[in-house]
Amino acid sequence: MWVGVVFCASLLSSLVIAVTVELTDGQIDVVSARLAEAALQSWELGTRAQTILELNATTYSVFNTSVTLPPPSTIPAGLVADGSLDPFFAIAKQIVTNRTVSNNNTVGPQPLIADGSAADPASIGVSVLLANLTGQDGGQVNYSGAATDQLNFLLEKVPKTSDGAISHRVSEVQLWSDFIYMVPPFLAYYGVVTQNRSLLEEAHTQISLYRNYLRDNSTGMWKHVLLGSADNDPGFWSTGNGWAAAGMLRVLMTMQQSQYANTFTSEQSDLASWVAEIHAAIYPHLDTTNVFTNYADQDPSATGNFYDAASTALLAGTVYRASVLLGQHTYVPFAERCRKTLFNTTSAAPTANGTATLAGYQHLTTDGWLTPVVNPHSYGLEGSESAEAQAFVVQLHAAHRDWVLAGSVGQQSGAAPSVARDSSGALLAVAAALLLYLY
Ligand SMILES: *[C@@H]1O[C@H](CO)[C@@H](O)[C@H](O)[C@H]1NC(C)=O
Ligand SMILES: *[C@@H]1O[C@H](CO)[C@@H](O)[C@H](O)[C@H]1NC(C)=O
Ligand SMILES: *[C@@H]1O[C@H](CO)[C@@H](O)[C@H](O)[C@H]1NC(C)=O
Ligand SMILES: *[C@@H]1O[C@H](CO)[C@@H](O)[C@H](O)[C@H]1NC(C)=O
Ligand SMILES: *[C@@H]1O[C@H](CO)[C@@H](O)[C@H](O)[C@H]1NC(C)=O
Ligand SMILES: *[C@@H]1O[C@H](CO)[C@@H](O)[C@H](O)[C@H]1NC(C)=O
Ligand SMILES: *[C@@H]1O[C@H](CO)[C@@H](O)[C@H](O)[C@H]1NC(C)=O
Ligand SMILES: *[C@@H]1O[C@H](CO)[C@@H](O)[C@H](O)[C@H]1NC(C)=O
Ligand SMILES: *[C@@H]1O[C@H](CO)[C@@H](O)[C@H](O)[C@H]1NC(C)=O
Ligand SMILES: *[C@@H]1O[C@H](CO)[C@@H](O)[C@H](O)[C@H]1NC(C)=O
Asked: Hey, what's the signal peptide range on this chain (predicted)?
């Protein structure tokens, strides 16, 4: 018994120390600065815009359950004063004003920005809708028309499968798991702000269609790229599974807080179970490094495979969100392992919130870049300085912050981690058993 108490106490103290692993506000500002510099492509701008809401302007984040949708059209004074939304609206303004210049004032269905991807420009759509809703630029910038043209482009101009799935590509029908983050959240939000229920329904329909094509029935993971004439990628791209889970969470929360919530009960439960399904499928592939490989089921030494901290961060963020918002706690211990590994330092972790230095971090460079990461512009290759990876770090930090605020539920709950090599999981189980025995 005495041995048990000492053993248990030392385990608990190490757990308590581990729980405090988190980045300071100063460090997150450094990571945010790299995000701002690196985000240039359509989906990078859209992902950055969403990230700004999740970290700094939570009144306008669909993950904030105390704000019903549509959100306030008058921006709260505190948010105006602290400028948190400035970079968010700057993205919308840059895109919409550039659109007018580059298209010579052409009106009608068109993407927000020229792109071979039919889906990625739509990721910027929520920022354009909010710029319109909150009356940015006093009516001098045509945000409403730009959003409408983007919507109509998706609905009318982009090729579709015979059953109606909107292509991820402009030139031909091809489905990518990434689509789920780029398009359905925009459709749903458009429906909310223009009082158009059918667009929320369309968001769910698109996800359902994509899931039918891309979800692998034996593993439960989503394939990356199918259909089309070339460049298929049937592998279980980890980031793609993260895009799908995160996009579904956004659509679900948009529905749940909307004026149409009680007319979409089965759709909301679909989305909740489809998020859970991805977590249940992919987390068993997490090995003792606590970092996913680029293709989750493949060995890190396989061709085109390597450890990828970007997808690891994205997925872990979705686990904290699912815990707080959907009561899904099973994979919280896995997300904790991932977060503590990505945010771990061999130096003494800083205690002052203003500390911005990043010394001794295995997965963040001293400049704040997440590493190692997949090349976001060539998904089979390892890269560096990835904009989306920076966004995923900030999203993970914000999701964890909100999970702590909500009481850190599920920290030690859930299934024992199922990868046999996982010694930390085994220790947790021993600690829990001892606690039960002692009390
Ligand atoms: C830093 O401040 C934030 C609030 O801005 C708080 O949630 C977080 O716990 C603080 N972190 C540290 C390491 O003190
Ligand atoms: C959040 O706000 C802080 C403080 O203004 C800023 O330094 C940081 O860049 C912001 N992060 C993002 C992702 O906008
Ligand atoms: C949600 O928004 C409200 C109102 O702006 C704000 O007071 C609150 O802190 C936000 N909650 C979270 C969890 O971000
Ligand atoms: C733009 O419109 C103006 C006026 O109609 C025309 O003179 C010009 O050639 C157009 N430019 C392009 C690039 O289409
Ligand atoms: C401006 O629009 C053109 C055409 O859509 C696009 O190629 C370019 O990347 C855009 N530039 C910026 C800064 O948005
Ligand atoms: C833009 O705002 C106006 C005025 O509030 C509103 O009537 C219109 O529906 C909005 N457009 C979109 C696409 O949200
Ligand atoms: C705004 O854009 C829409 C869609 O392209 C267009 O129909 C409308 O005429 C534009 N409004 C103004 C004032 O330019
Ligand atoms: C909702 O949006 C769709 C697509 O733009 C449109 O066809 C339909 O008329 C809209 N419904 C309402 C009620 O505005
Ligand atoms: C999964 O099963 C469903 C129903 O049998 C089928 O429609 C779908 O094509 C299958 N998905 C894949 C990716 O094989
Ligand atoms: C964090 O780093 C320390 C020091 O290198 C190491 O002992 C510990 O195992 C690491 N923890 C995780 C969760 O990676």
From this structure: 1-18
Containing structural domain, residue 100: 20-418
- Does residue 13 form part of some domain? no
The pLDDT value given to residue 411:
87
Residues 118 and 88: their CA atoms lie apart, in Å, by: 22
Q: What's the confidence (pLDDT) of residue 21? A: 84
Tokens of 10: 């030392």
Asked, for residue 169, whether it belongs to a domain, the answer is: yes
Q: How many domains does the chain have?
A: 1
pLDDT digits (tens, 9 = 90+) for 359-395: 999 999 999 999 999 999 999 999 999 999 999 999 9
Ligand found nearest the CA of 424: 10
Q: Is 340 in the pocket of ligand 10 (CB under 6 A)?
A: yes
**CATH number of the domain bearing residue 385:** 1.50.10.10
Report whether 123 contacts 168 (CB < 8 A): no
Q: Which of 391, 259, 256 is nearest to 326 (CA)?
A: 256
User: Which amino acid is it at 255?
Assistant: M
* Ligand 9 pocket residues where CB is under 6 Å: 212, 215-217
| pTM score, whole prediction | 0.90
Provide the CA 188 distance to its chain's centre, in angstroms. 16
Asked whether the beta carbons of 223 and 234 are under 8 A apart, the reply is: yes
Q: Is residue 38 part of a domain?
A: yes
Which DSSP letter does residue 67 get? S
